[in-house]
Amino acid sequence: MKEKRILLFFSCLCVGISLVIASSQHTCPANLEAKCGDGSTDDWEGEFFPGIKKIKYEGPTSKNPLSYKWYNAEEEILGKKMKDWMRFSVAFWHTFRGTGADPFGAPTKSWPWEDGTNSVAMAKRRMRAHFEFMDKLGVNRWCFHDRDIAPDGKTLAETNANLDEIIALAKELQEGTDIKPLWGTAQLFLHPRYMHGAATSSEVGVYAYAAAQVKKAMEVTNYLGGENYVFWGGREGYQTLLNTDMQRELDHLAKFLQAAVDYKKKIGFNGTLLIEPKPQEPTKHQYDWDAATAFAFFQKYGLQEFKLNIECNHATLSGHSCHHELETARINGLLGNIDANTGDPQIGWDTDQFLTDIAEATLVMLSVVRNGGLAPGGFNFDAKLRRESTDVEDMFIAHVSGMDTLARGLRNVAKLIEDGSLAELVRKRYQSFDSEIGAQIEAGKADFETLEKKAMEWGEPSVASGKQELAEMIFQSVL
Ligand code: XUL
Ligand code: CO
């Protein structure tokens, strides 16, 4: 263990005063490559977050940034406890592997527990920090990629052995708690072998390697009691159609996903399989562009086992609102999970920010409530601190803020439902279909001759106002 320094700092936020005592032991950038420690030990003395107590609900008047103002886990809203509506999850990759690096700049985070290596020992220490983080935050679910939590070895067998070591520790840390993975996944995009894709790679060797990786990731997700398994096809797409056999690649992807269904059954894994749509980045065009594209793909290939993990920032990248993607998934029976984040209207890429817009959160929660909740899915904070946010307490503040925003959205939906006028506006808008002929149309029993007869009989139809401004006024009134 390196030299230790205790650094006390006073964090005075504009909303009030919070006294946070942070212990800054030896620090190195949370970098994947840079070396600073020797990565030989997972020793750590005391707490990882010594200045931070368990985050509690203090209500909307609290000025304490390390408290919940809107998220009250045990409180019942619309017939369910808030924690059961939300099923919040910490994303290991952003929270514990995010370095703050961007294409123009070096890592900015120097978390005290990082020794700058990607060793198995460092992975263990990091996993312990992660469990303390979840405990203090009061979140009992987490999401991971295989390679975020354990380093690559020289061979696949060695890599699997590294993963097994970390999984054994995670299992031990989960014991006696109600913590478990919301979902696991395989990282099939970072290593150069995946430069042409994984299941859609032009190389059969890569297809096989990816299958082996997913097989193992499903096994460990199952072993940890994970409730879902995600496929995000970061490189399952193309950079140019000139060198791409799109039909062959899509057929390969479907065969790969079917093999995952078969293996899931074989090992008795009951988790839901989820596809996470995204239109592009890193590829120019990702095959799972949006919810509707993924739905068509499921239909064509008979992949009925799959549901969707909708990510809000991916939704906006595909030219839709998050609400649109959620509703498209929901009405097709596919809403399985939400990667809770948001983009920036002035930035055209996946900024993965914590959701803080109350109106957007209310629309998200409207879909969730209409869906009857998300279980066995939940809300995974696929969101990262800004590069410039470098205090340990920022990790907590970001999650507290994201959780409170969604909790506030849920409270607003309850108000909207209780008020009833928006539902009434929508009901009235379609009431002409509550007629005999409307019922015939909806039952598929109105042929064109019947409808022509009606049109002749009725003459020019009357068309009512859409009342958009009134709908917006009602929505605003609950925010
Ligand atoms: C990337 C993204 C991923 C997936 C998991 O945009 O959202 O982190 O959620 O691979
Ligand atoms: Co995501």
Automatic annotation (TrEMBL):
Transmembrane segments: none
Keywords of this entry: Carbohydrate metabolism, Isomerase, Metal-binding, Signal, Xylose metabolism
GO molecular function: metal ion binding; xylose isomerase activity
Keyword S-adenosyl-L-methionine: no
SUPFAM superfamilies tied to this protein: Xylose isomerase-like
Biological process terms in GO annotation: D-xylose metabolic process
Span of the signal peptide: 1-22
Highest taxon, organism lineage: Eukaryota
Catalytic activity: alpha-D-xylose = alpha-D-xylulofuranose
Gene3D superfamilies assigned to the protein according to its UniProt record, in alphabetical order: Divalent-metal-dependent TIM barrel enzymes (3.20.20.150)
InterPro entries associated with the record: Xyl_isomerase-like_sf (IPR036237), Xylose_isom_bac (IPR013452), Xylose_isomerase (IPR001998)
Enzyme Commission number, as recorded: 5.3.1.5
Family matches, as PANTHER family: PTHR48408, XYLOSE ISOMERASE
Family assignment from sequence similarity: Belongs to the xylose isomerase family.
Designated name of the protein: Xylose isomerase
